[in-house]
Amino acid sequence: MPKVRVGDVNIYYEIKGEGNPLVMIMGLAGNLDWWDPKMISEFSKHFKLILFDNRGAGRSDMGQKPFSIKLFADDTVGLMDALGISKANVLGFSMGGMIAQELVLNYPERVEKLVLCSTFCGARRGVLPPPQPVPLDDLAENPRKVMEFMAKTIFTEEFINNNPQAFEDMIQRMLKAPITKEAFIQQFYAIMQFDTHDRLPQIKVPTLIVHGKKDILLPVENATILASTIPNAKLIILEKSGHGLAEEIDKAIAAIIDFLRGG
Q: Bridge-partner residues for 195, per DSSP?
């Protein structure tokens, strides 16, 4: 399995496709297996995709450093350095969108265009959902129970009822290399300490924000906050979609490709 040393950890990564590089950053608890296969298939026709597991997730090492969104951004740039990528388009989903914000704010010269999917600017100025504790104690002995719980927050109930196989396929991808309880807690704590709101006007690269109106993890108001604070950001709200955008994945894919290719 391809791994590369980045600072104090070994990062697992995969490269798919050819063309201008597109670094894709996954969210809380997730790894590169969690990406929608259709998204990867279509993006790889136009871009060289850099997919990887964040520190502590999937097949990447956890390391000894306290987790922070800034540390994840540093890891991402370290991976780019190790792969000889001086500048890339960057797409972040959920927590990955938070990492992408820190990346462009701290390393603006490394980002060509920025895509923020289903994310927010931090708890201080963002909109949080009602608390819904994740059954983390079951991660070791019954990971499927936890992944089913998480998958139900990614998709709308209507999508799950109408697409049971897609729901099952997602759970199977989630079970390939599930996160540990310790790493999940550290990632969640990093999210709760994250805050970019007051720095967002510093983002000067072209930015696209994509969010589902039926997102129950990060309510759609967060997309409006980002779009109104990042200069000249383009906002796309998918009316039927939840957090994972699966309900209108074709629209999301087309919009992102059009944006990244200059549309």
A: 122
Q: Which helix (H) or strand (E) holds 14?
A: strand 9-16
Contact (Cβ atoms closer than 8 angstroms) between residue 37 and residue 8:
no
- pLDDT 10s digits, 134-191: 888 888 889 999 999 999 999 999 999 999 999 999 999 999 999 999 999 999 999 9
Given a contact cutoff of 8 angstroms between Cβ atoms, the answer to whether 79 and 52 are in contact is yes
**Distance from C-alpha of 54 to C-alpha of 49, rounded to nearest angstrom:** 15
Q: Which residue segments constitute the domains of the chain, with CATH numbers given?
A: 3-131+179-260 (3.40.50.1820)
**Is residue 188 exposed (0-12), middle (13-18) or buried (19+ Cβ within 10 Å)?**
middle
User: pTM of the predicted model, to two decimals?
Assistant: 0.97
As to burial, measured by CB atoms within 10 angstroms (0-12 exposed, 13-18 middle, 19+ buried), residue 136 is middle
Q: Which amino acid is at 143?
A: P
Q: Quick one: how many helices (H) and strands (E) in the chain? A: 9, 8
Query: DSSP class of residue 111?
Result: E
Give the C-alpha separation, 263 to 259, whole Å: 5
The count of C-alpha atoms lying within 13 angstroms of the C-alpha of 146, restricted to the half-sphere facing its C-beta, is 21
Q: Which two tokens stand for residue 41?
A: 């298939």
A 10 A CB-CB count for 232 gives: 10
Helix (H, G, I), strand (E, B) or coil at 201: helix
- Long-range contact pairs involving 174-177 (C-beta distance under 8 Å, separation at least 24): 174/30, 174/33, 174/34, 174/147, 174/150, 175/143, 175/144, 175/147, 176/31, 176/33, 176/58, 177/31, 177/33, 177/53, 177/57, 177/58, 177/59
